[in-house]
Amino acid sequence: MSVGIVAARYAKSLIELAKEKNVLEVVFEDMKLFKDTADNNRALMLALKSPVVRHEKKLAILKALFKERVNPVSYSIFTIITKKNRESILDAIADEFITSYNLYQGIQKATVTTTTPLTEELRKQFISIVAGTSGKTIELEEKVDPNLIGGYVLRVDDRQLDASLRSRLNELKLELAS
How far is Cα 110 from Cα 148, in angstroms, rounded to an integer? Predict the structure, then answer.
């Protein structure tokens, strides 16, 4: 079975348990904490994915890092997954949980890349553009890439609107070449 399917099933179960225990917001913060820790600590994910490291050791690592920092519901998923020998997909489960939580709460993530940081007025315009098409609450991530030369690139899920000068120049170059 694919990692995505398994991770989605565990994430769905965790959301249901968190809703039942009335700790959904806390578990969401815990999953973000785990994801940030995993993203910023390559050694942690290498240890969790390693077939050489025993499962008891992996659980001990998770216990040392998270037992005192997360809700018991969040920690229980670490324990269950380790007992099922699936700790290598914990990061995928955290990703799926965050995605499912956003879907449940009606939050749409969007990423805008510009050559300079956005002003408050432009930020509001991008949020209203995306909110108008999705009808959801928008969480806008901003990135700065001076290589765009000018304009912007707006990503929402798997859709992308590229209104950058770099892409226009590339299109023009292809047109002139043919």
Answer: 18
* Measured CA distances, 122 to 46, 125, 165 (Å): 41, 5, 18
Q: Which residues are bridge partners to 112 per DSSP? A: 142, 154
pLDDT of residue 119 exceeding 80, the answer is yes
Same-domain status, 122 and 160: yes
Q: 75 and 35 share a domain? A: yes
Give φ, ψ of 111 to 5 degrees: -125, 130
Q: Is there a contact between 11 and 96 (Cβ–Cβ < 8 Å)? A: yes
Helix (H) or strand (E) holding 69: none
Query: Of how many residues is the chain composed?
Result: 178
- C-alpha Rg value of the chain to the nearest Å: 20
User: In which domain, by residue range, is 56 found?
Assistant: 3-103
pLDDT, tens digit (0-9, with 9 covering 90-100), for 1-38: 688 899 999 999 999 999 999 999 999 999 999 999 99
- Residue 7 contacts residue 90 (beta carbons within 8 Å): no
* pTM assigned to the model: 0.78
Residue 55 sits in a domain whose CATH number is: 1.10.520.20
The helix, strand and coil proportions of the chain, stated in percent and rounded to the nearest 5, come to 65, 15, 20
